[in-house]
C-alpha cells in the first residue's frame, strides 16, 4: 500500500527536476570545462581538440613571440569562432554552439597555418 503511493510521487519529483534543464538552463551548465589551447611560433598545442557539444569553449593563450590567433572553421570553410590577434601573454576565451562534426583550427595570419599552426576540433553530441 505504502509503496504504491510512493512510486508515483518519486516519478513526479524526477519529472519536475529534469524539466527545467531541458528548457531554460544556461548553456554553460550543460558543457564541460573550457579547452585550453596555447599558440606559439609555429604550433597549436594541443593540435587535436575534442569537445562535447553543443556549447564549445576554448581558452586561448598566445605564447608568442609573434602575435597569433585561433580561428575555427567548419567543414564548409566558414569561420564559426575566432580570437583577435593575441600578443605574447594575452588570453582570450571564445565560445560557440557547434553542431557535431569535424572542424579545422588554425592561426589565420598569413603563412602561419602552413608553418604548422593548424589542427582539428571534433565536436560530439552531448
Ligand atoms: Cu600565428
Shape: globular
What is the CATH topology descriptor? Immunoglobulin-like
The first-to-last residue Cα distance is 40 Å
Largest sheet: 5 strands, mixed
Would you tell me the structural class of the helices and strands? alpha+beta
Q: Judging by the overall fold, what is the CATH architecture?
A: Sandwich
In which order are the strands of the major sheet placed? 3-9-8-5-6
Describe this structure in words.
With 126 residues, the chain is of the alpha+beta class. It has a single domain (26-124), classed as Cupredoxins -  blue copper proteins (Immunoglobulin-like, Sandwich). Helix content is 17%, strand content 39%. It contains 1 helix and 9 strands, in the order αβββββββββ. The chain has one helix spanning 2-23; strands at 35-40, 43-45, 48-52, 55-62, 71-73, 79-82, 91-97, 101-106, 118-124. The chain has a 5-stranded mixed beta sheet, with no helix packed on it. Bound molecules: copper (II) ion.
Compact overview of the structure:
The protein has 126 residues and is of the alpha+beta class. The chain has one helix and nine strands, in the order H-E-E-E-E-E-E-E-E-E.
Give me the secondary-structure topology.
Elements: H1 2-23, E1 35-40, E2 43-45, E3 48-52, E4 55-62, E5 71-73, E6 79-82, E7 91-97, E8 101-106, E9 118-124
Parallel strand pairs: 1-4, 3-9
Antiparallel strand pairs: 1-2, 4-7, 5-6, 5-8, 8-9
Bound molecules: copper (II) ion.
Copper (II) ion is lined by residues 68, 107, 109, 112, 117.
Amino acid at each position: 500500500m505504502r509503496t504504491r503511493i510512493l512510486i508515483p510521487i518519486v516519478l513526479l519529483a524526477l519529472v519536475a527536476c529534469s524539466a527545467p534543464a531541458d528548457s531554460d538552463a544556461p548553456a554553460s551548465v550543460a558543457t564541460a570545462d573550457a579547452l585550453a589551447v596555447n599558440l606559439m611560433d609555429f604550433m597549436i598545442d594541443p593540435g587535436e581538440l575534442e569537445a562535447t557539444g553543443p556549447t564549445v569553449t576554448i581558452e586561448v593563450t598566445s605564447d608568442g613571440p609573434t602575435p597569433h590567433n585561433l580561428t575555427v572553421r567548419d567543414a564548409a570553410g566558414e569561420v564559426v569562432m575566432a580570437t583577435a590577434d593575441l600578443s605574447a601573454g594575452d588570453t582570450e576565451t571564445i565560445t560557440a554552439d557547434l553542431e557535431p562534426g569535424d572542424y579545422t583550427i588554425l592561426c589565420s595570419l598569413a603563412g602561419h597555418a602552413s608553418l604548422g599552426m593548424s589542427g582539428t576540433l571534433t565536436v560530439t553530441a552531448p
